[in-house]
Amino acid sequence: MLTVHHLGISQSDRIVWLCEELGIPYQLRRYDRDPVTRLAPEEYRALHPFGTAPVITDGDFVLGESAAIVEYLIATHGGDALIRRASEPDFADYLFWFNFANSSMMPALMMSMVVGLLGGGDRAKALLARGDRAYAMIEDRLAKVPYLAGDAFSAADIMIHFPLTTGRVFAPRDISGYPNILAYLQRIAARPAYAAAMAKAEPDFAPMLT
Hints:
By secondary structure, this protein is of the alpha+beta class. The protein has 2 domains: about 1-80, Glutaredoxin, CATH 3.40.30; about 90-190, Glutathione S-transferase Yfyf (Class Pi), Chain A, domain 2 (Up-down Bundle). About 50% of the residues lie in helices and about 10% in strands. Helix 1 links the parallel strand 1 and strand 2. Helix 4 (about 90-120) packs antiparallel against helix 5 and helix 5 packs across helix 7. The longest helix is centred in the middle third of the chain and has 28 residues, at about 90-120.
């Protein structure tokens, strides 16, 4: 049986959402953050050697890392749904945005969080500018297409959604000046699988869609 080990207010909400989109049977086990440190509890950190969310168990198999889990579930349980194949015109766009989420955007947002804690300066401004560029790129892309890989929803949207929404708990950002992103988030919110996933994963947390 597939078990999604979901740490509250974390990237593991992506995995719950993916399972709902693909209709994959799963067991959800939710863990609350430590009330003092706001980090994962010891029980969660013991699931995987790296100790971070997300983590799944599929029988005796244990896997961490959002992108790895998404690709694994699509390949093994999802019939290759929500991806683009090399023969499709949006393949390169899909690859870029799927990987951009955690390879470039998430580190940029984490830098902005660290800069906020440590203070300003020219180097700090340069680091903050990376986050600005990430948002600007996404805003520009969504001016041309409804979803990041093109006309249809894909796993790239599942990957990018966290830094645009829940990730702002950790790296606050006013997104009122990004109308295309705001419209995109409303399209995502209208998806039944997204609503079902958030109700299960974060029943006491309102999605950050504005």
